[in-house]
Amino acid sequence: MLAGKIRSMSAFFIAINRDLQPFDKALAESMMSQLDRFGDNTRELILGDYFAIGFQGTWRVPEEQGETQPLKHGELWFGFYGRIDNRSELISTLRELGLSIEEGASDAKLAMEYLANNGVDRLTDIVGPFSLFQFNQLSGELLLARDGMGARHLVYHINQDCILASSYEMALLEHPSLGYRFRDDAIGLYLTSHIQTRPASIIEDIELIYPGHALSVNSFKRDIVQACPMQNIAYTRFYKPDPAKRVRYATDKEYASEFKRLLDQAVRRRMRGIGNIGSQLSGGLDSVPITILAAQKIAEPANDDLAKDNPANNNGVKHHRTLSAYSWVFDHYAEADERAISGPICEAYGLEQIKINCDHIWPDHSPQTKLDPLGPIYNPFMSFNHELFKQAQSNHVSTMLNGIHGDLLYGYTQGILYELVARGRIRDAFSEAKRLRKSVASWRAFLSLYLLKPVRIVNWFLSAKRKSTVDSLERVLQPSVMSKISRAQHYLHKESSSALRPNQWCIVLGDFVGRDLAIGRYIESEYSIERRYPFRDRDLCEFMLAIPSDQLAFGGELRPIVKRAFAEEFPRNLRERVGKTSFAKVMREGMRNDQNNKRWGESQAQEWSRYVKQCYFNGKVEQNSYFDVVKWRCGYYDYWKSVCYDPLVKN
């Protein structure tokens, strides 16, 4: 099933025969072949008596150079894909236990030693993106775990005959117990731009480890397994921050200072690595502070992190890492162009700025395009990123800082009073109302922003729902697809009930971002670039979820805490900025003028109509940006299916 070799990141699989029969070598090699698209530094395939383990890796941080995985200690096999951001704390804990652990130990070795000496209950102590497995070949016990922010992907399949797990679904699909079949509800939700309330793999019969969860299973209990394959499984959430936690300071300055400290820590953590660093710089309040902090960090004369071992060239000479900025620019769409802000930032910090003109960049619809076999997960922005990554790759960039999903930390404030009252949280509603009232000039402004405006939005939504407008799933999706979509509440709904902003809690700590990052990694891997996301830092997210809403939106102005934190660094036009840059026009015009996509959407097959009702595009529906996205995605689905899915199935 492999569709073109591309290299970056790391990936692993583990497959276990529960009847203890020898594992087929050809099958193990076939599963391993699916990992060839990941990693160019190390490749290991272990064939045990009744199991197989494969690990394909790229060394991304200095400490793991020269390391091969999986690690082995006695009867224990251990695999780790990720990065540990609080290494010093874990090393100190191990030394307090009397253990000798080197400062230069790899993240994988550090994680293995920490769990071996503290138990799986202490998984929550490991901060950073990771997915891991721990397998005892003597007892048959297997542990799978995924980091609390969902920054790494991890899936599994269990039946009475086998246990399969991997950081990449395609490795599992080589096993005869699984087929290359997609979940209708997952495709339907994707085409209509909705998210799953119960996260699952897009592949049927493959389950997803939720962020901050661990699964343990014993592969040997055949008497139990034959009756109920899932009975001897323990699925636990090891990372669960306290939703009732509140951070209260005396002044706005204290909030801003702590925010800046945590964001600086998040950026520093993500700059640890090998190779040059890039920053995906727009002119917004997410990417600009990240770029500023990274520039300040790289300029430090005695930098203990960035001066660490970079691989030497052929002459044995080691080079310091550089930082450069990469920006989308538009000559024909002034409202989307942000050079007036990003340019002066680069000049102020002496950064080279590489500008990618995106006026006419649009997705390629040729059969030669490398497409993700895990579904038609694509949007027009991806084409901008392809061009950006090409430029970055030519500058030997291996780490790209990105401000995406920062907006999740500042939203969910406008209707907060109604949300809290509806959940019976009167005390919190009163506390928030007092602070929000102080953030505006008058009672009239308070009533308009936080009481009347949310009411108008709610009333419009209810009215729209009664009229069955375009954002009603029932109107858009086929009944056969709707019947498979879970109507259950978000899986974090119960615990979020005591959070300050419950909806924000679910979206920040759920799997929405993790799924998005997994999709992006397929594209990044073509260019050997790893994007890293400071606004997904665990410590920063916990802080932002616990502070009052007036720090997130001040009198209707977004991100006041950011502007206060960077008051000295931001130029005036950024300090006075009140909204976000809109790409709506360039996206809308691009989608409507995409003739290749239109031909696919109107082709005779119209495979998309299995999910979306054809009558939805009969011209009677008011056309808007949502309509354009759904129509474009339907066309892209047919293109993807014909050039990626169908050939793989036939093979």
Task: Please provide a brief summary of the model.
This protein has 651 residues and is α+β, with helices and mostly antiparallel strands. It contains 24 helices and 19 strands.
Word description of this protein:
- The structure is a single chain.
- The protein has 651 residues and is of the alpha+beta class.
- Among the domains are: 11-178 and 210-237, 4-Layer Sandwich (Glutamine Phosphoribosylpyrophosphate, subunit 1, domain 1), CATH 3.60.20.10; 252-357 and 391-409 and 510-575, HUPs (Rossmann fold), CATH 3.40.50.620.
- Helices cover 37% and strands 15% of the residues.
- It has 24 helices and 19 strands.
- It has a six-stranded antiparallel β-sheet. A six-stranded antiparallel β-sheet has the order 4-5-6-7-11-12, with helices on one face. Strands 15-14-13-16-17 form a five-stranded parallel β-sheet, sandwiched between helices.
- A hairpin with a 2-residue loop joins strand 4 and strand 5 (76-82).
- The longest helix has 26 residues, at 625-650.
- It starts with 10 loop residues before the first strand and ends with a helix.
